[in-house]
Amino acid sequence: QRVRGEQIMKRQIVITGASSGIGLAAAQLCSEFEDVKLILVSRRGSEIDGAVSIKGDVTDPATAAAVADEVEPTGEIVLVNNAGIAPVGLFEEQDFAEWSRGVDVNLTGAMRMTHPLLPKMKQAGQSRIINLLSIASVQSFPGAAVYCATKAGLLSFGNAISAEARNDGVMVTAILPGSVDTPLWDPMDQHPPREDMMPASAVAEAIVGVIKSPRDRVIERIDLMPPKGIL
To answer: Which stretches within 10-126 are classed as H helix?
Structure first.
C-alpha cells in the first residue's frame, strides 16, 4: 500500500533452494508480486521469468557474496532460507562426509546466507527472515539425528537473530511443517504415504502469507501439519 507523500520501494525477495519443492512453489507465487526483485538461489539455476537466477551452493561463500551484491539496502528485504537436505539412517552408520554435509547445508548454509544480508536489512529498516524448518526442530525422530539437530539449531539461531535485530526492523519467522511431498523423499526407501503429505504449495502459501502480513505484528512461528498429523 502507498503511504501518502512516500515513494513505494521495490521489495527484494531472496529464496534459496528455489529449483524444486517448497522453494520453487514459493518462487512461483512471489513472481506474481508487483514491483518485486526476485533473487533465486539453487544449484541447478532457475527459469522463472524476470527473476535473477544465482546458480550456486549455499555452503559456498561466493554464493552468499553474489546474493549480497544483488540486494540494495532499501525497500523491503526478504530472505527465505529454504535450502535443505535430509541425511537419514543411524548416525553411527553415517560417514563424516554424509552427516557433515547435512550440517553445512541446513545450518551453516542458512547462517552464511544471512550474514552478509543482515546489515543491509537493518539499514533498510523493514526486512524479514523466514526460516523453513521442520517439526523435527522440536520433535526428534530415529534415523534423522543430523536433520533434527540442524533444524533445531536453525530455530535457535533465528530466535537469537530476532532478539538482536528486531529493534532495527528485522522480523524473523520460523515455519515448522510436518511431512511435505517434495523431492526430499525421492532417495529414501521408506517414508510416509506421499498422498497423505501436504503439497509444497501449502507451505509456499504460508511463506507468502508471512511476507504480506502487516508490519504491526510479528509472526514468530508457524506449525503446519497434514490433516492426519505429522506422519
So the answer is: 21-30, 61-70, 96-103, 109-124
Q: What is the mean pLDDT of residues 29-55?
A: 95
Scan for cell 523423499, then name that residue: 185
CA distance linking residue 227 with residue 231, whole number of Å: 10
For the stretch 90-105, pLDDT in tens is: 999 999 999 999 999 9
On average, the pLDDT of the chain sits at: 93
Residue 113 near residue 131 (C-beta atoms within 8 A):
no
| Surface-to-core class of residue 88, CB atoms within 10 Å of its CB (0-12 exposed, 13-18 middle, 19+ buried) | buried
Query: What interhelical angle do 21-30 and 200-212 show, nearest 10?
Result: 40
3-class DSSP state for residue 63? helix
Residue keyed to cell 526478504: 78
pTM of the model: 0.93
End-to-end CA distance of the chain: 40
For the segment 77-96, the average pLDDT, to the nearest whole number, is: 95
DSSP state of 95: -
Supply the pLDDT for residue 111: 98
Which residues 6+ apart lie within 8 Å of 97 measured at CB?
Answer: none
* Furthest C-alpha separation in the chain: 62
Residue 101 confidence (pLDDT) = 96
Show the cell assigned to 29.
507465487
If we measure between CA atoms, which residue out of 119, 111, 154 comes closest to residue 134?
Answer: 154
Q: Give the contacts of 163 (CB within 8 A, at least 6 positions apart).
A: none
